[in-house]
Amino acid sequence: MEEKVVSACPLNCWDACSFHVTIENQTVKRVEGNHDHPITKGKICGRGRLLAERTNSSQRILHPLKKINGEWVQIEWEQALDEIAMRMGEVKSKYGPTAVMHSHDYSNNGLLKSLDQRFFNCFGGLTEVVGSLCWGAGIAAQTWDFGNSYSHAPDDIENSKQIVVWGRNAAHTNMHLFTRLQKMKKKGIPITVIDPMFHTTAKLADRYVAVRPGMDGWLALGIVKVILEKGWQDTYFIENFTHGFKDLEKLAASIKLEEIEVKTDVSRETIVQLAHTYRSGPTSTFLGLGMQRYKNGGNTIRLIDALAAVSGNIGIPGGGCSYGNLAVGQSFNKQELTLPHKRREVRHFTRMFQAEEILRNKELPVEVLFITRSNPLTQVPDSNRVRQAFESVPTIVVVDQYMTDSAEIADYVLPCTTVFEEEDIYYASMYHHYINYGKKLVPPKGEAKSDLEIWSMLAERLGFGEEFHYTAEEFMEMGLSSLNKHGITLEKLKQEKFLELPVESVPWSDRKFQTPSGKYEFTSLSALQEGFTDGRIKLAFPEESAENEPELVKKYPYQLLTIHPLRSNHSQSHHLISNMQTVVVQVSDVIAKNKGILSGDEVEIFNQRGSLKGEVKIIKNGHPNVINVDEGQWHKFGGSVNVLTPSSESDIGQGSTFYDCKVDIQKLNGSLSRVT
Ligand SMILES: Nc1nc2c(c(=O)[nH]1)N[C@H]1C(S)=C(S)[C@@H](COP(=O)(O)OP(=O)(O)OC[C@H]3O[C@@H](n4cnc5c(=O)[nH]c(N)nc54)[C@H](O)[C@@H]3O)O[C@H]1N2
Ligand SMILES: Nc1nc2c(c(=O)[nH]1)N[C@H]1C(S)=C(S)[C@@H](COP(=O)(O)OP(=O)(O)OC[C@H]3O[C@@H](n4cnc5c(=O)[nH]c(N)nc54)[C@H](O)[C@@H]3O)O[C@H]1N2
Ligand code: SF4
Ligand SMILES: [Mo]
């Protein structure tokens, strides 16, 4: 008999959707949207629906595997865990706990997933990856400017008179914002999209601005300049609630609008129109993550924040500069879950430089590498280097559901459960502030175990088992303990399936900012405290730009973007969708014309780090210098575009610089032979 149960999407995504999952004979049949959820309202995307297939697929890893003489051999859990624990113990007594490294990301948004930190803290420490491939520069920027990164509640868009979507491909990545944009458009609210790619979100816009990649900060300063020249700024807000405005004024005065036009490829007329947009608000700005994945990314976001502040759009209904919504994750009692006081020694490698650090640290080498909730061989930049670094590590343990590129190079692969085979609380610190409950719905396939079970069994063997002598329920209660005073308990969550967190719908409406001065800071005092020489906003160029690297750009003239795929969360779907198994190289019509390239041609794109072959699809109307290859492709289907991207770090926040990347392109003769 079929049964429909409420569950939740675990994927790293803006939307944190609520599901109805149909179960029959202990098997997941279908995943659909839950109409009762106030934000996600019954609509989900293909990635969510595919979670049924992710659970049922015959490609799942069903048993622990060990690589012996280059071949995978199935072994018992007991053997796998005994051997891994013994190796960890040996390494710890010889070198200390930092000889064990944990490379992880956030592929699953479950609260209990943070228990990996409890495990390593109780182990005594580790080499930990810090910073973010995803949004580090922008989070640091907003933290400097506002003291935190908070978003307006989704429905507050109803109060906007102008909407600017700045570097967020909502149609592909944030479907419930897209639905709201469509609604607002119908109501006649003007929508502006600023993005070098003319994608589905751009098509919806009333005004589309094809900014030169990495130059959004300059554009924002241009708009500020016009606002100040015309006297359209919110003087009351600036005088009473901000710090450092004079520095911003000086920066604006230091550059001519003509220069901004030339550098950004945006005309004066458009810049003036954008100033009007910010003047005739409330104007809500939805920042994406695209324009901060550059060397100058932090300053870019600071300049856009500054524009929202100068134009009086902070702390008002229908306004805001919405990026992350950290208030969500900050609501939980993570201290009690992760026990940070237990760690004795820790070494930090940034996510961006994890490969370089492994290769560089010869005196205290990484002896054991754990990879969980991530697929770094595909997702971390400069993947040839990542491969080289990881292959130099004596023991690699991967916990995953599938034989990914990262799993392929491991010594042990431990099979883990999918969302429907385990219980957890799901949330995203991105778009809305509801948390969802997900029950265990079906038995694990094969011998798969949850991450929590795996950490618990290893902890037992390593002598700190008692720290894991709690049930999943008890751990969830621990995490929710900070919310009990607001009436949020596990019992209530289980009953209602989703609950609204006590998070403000219109952040900063009291004009009390979490910065050292308590004001909005155009010049950041936190920056000074963190040891930066001054906290002023800088007007900088991307790293791989004609201004910074003229010789390099002569050799590799085209901007390579590597945006997120529509039908996959990063690398998670390609093996399950047959027509996603090639590399598609999207080339602007201008480049294609210059190079005599036609749609369907086989091409190679290359730079100083690597090369990648793929089939051309011509794109139009965006910035003329852009080539895009969606990130996430598997080695066996042609390979990850990260063979080309730079491992560098953003100006602030230890963020990535994936899109700060130049390539050249050449047409190949003959048909594309796939790597198998
Ligand atoms: N379908 C799908 N949805 C996803 C994900 C996925 O993998 N697939 N991943 C999830 C995750 S982890 C994240 S972080 C979010 C990301 O959500 P988004 O920020 O919406 O997505 P990105 O693909 O990172 O691309 C950002 C956009 O930035 C644009 N861009 C690139 N460079 C610049 C620039 O210099 N200036 C401007 N203005 N725009 C620029 C790109 O053209 C693209 O449209 O999406 C989440 N949702
Ligand atoms: N070129 C380029 N590269 C990028 C980006 C880009 O825009 N361009 N975007 C970056 C961004 S924003 C992000 S967030 C990162 C994402 O990087 P990752 O998080 O490494 O990417 P995923 O492909 O989602 O890989 C997650 C892996 O975790 C596994 N997994 C899923 N659920 C679980 C679980 O519960 N437990 C365990 N142990 N494993 C699980 C999946 O099977 C999958 O193999 O990629 C970054 N890489
Ligand atoms: S991937 Fe995002 S949009 Fe799709 S179902 Fe999951 S949370 Fe919703
Ligand atoms: Mo991300």
Explained architecture:
Its cofactor is Mo-bis(molybdopterin guanine dinucleotide). Belongs to the prokaryotic molybdopterin-containing oxidoreductase family. The protein is α/β, with parallel strands linked by helices. Helix content is 31%, strand content 19%. A hairpin with a 4-residue loop joins strand 24 (602-606) and strand 25. The longest helix has 19 residues, at 77-95. It is globular. It starts with a strand and ends in a 9-residue tail after the last strand. Iron/sulfur cluster (SF4) binds at residues 9, 11, 13, 15-17, 44-45, 47-48, 175. Molybdenum atom is lined by residues 12, 134.
List the SSEs and their pairings.
Elements: E1 3-8, E2 18-24, E3 27-33, H1 46-49, H2 51-56, E4 65-68, E5 71-74, H3 77-95, E6 100-104, H4 115-123, E7 125-130, H5 136-146, E8 162-166, H6 170-173, H7 175-186, E9 191-194, H8 200-204, E10 207-209, H9 216-230, H10 235-241, E11 242-243, H11 245-253, H12 257-264, H13 268-279, E12 283-287, H14 297-310, E13 321-322, H15 334-338, E14 345-350, H16 354-360, E15 368-372, H17 376-379, H18 383-391, E16 395-400, H19 405-408, E17 412-415, E18 424-426, E19 434-438, H20 451-462, H21 472-480, H22 490-496, E20 498-500, E21 520-521, H23 525-529, H24 550-555, E22 558-561, E23 584-588, H25 589-595, E24 602-606, E25 611-619, E26 626-628, E27 662-667
Parallel strand pairs: 6-7, 6-15, 7-14, 8-9, 8-12, 9-10, 11-21, 12-13, 15-16, 16-17, 22-26, 23-25
Antiparallel strand pairs: 1-2, 2-3, 4-5, 4-17, 18-19, 19-20, 22-27, 23-26, 24-25, 24-27
Helix pairs in contact: 3-20, 4-20, 5-14, 9-11, 9-12, 9-13, 9-14, 16-18
The structure holds ligand MGD (2 copies), iron/sulfur cluster and molybdenum atom.
Molybdenum atom binds at residues 12, 134.
Pfam families: Molybdop_Fe4S4 (PF04879), Molybdopterin (PF00384), Molydop_binding (PF01568)
Domain 4Fe-4S Mo/W bis-MGD-type: 2-59
Cofactor: Mo-bis(molybdopterin guanine dinucleotide)
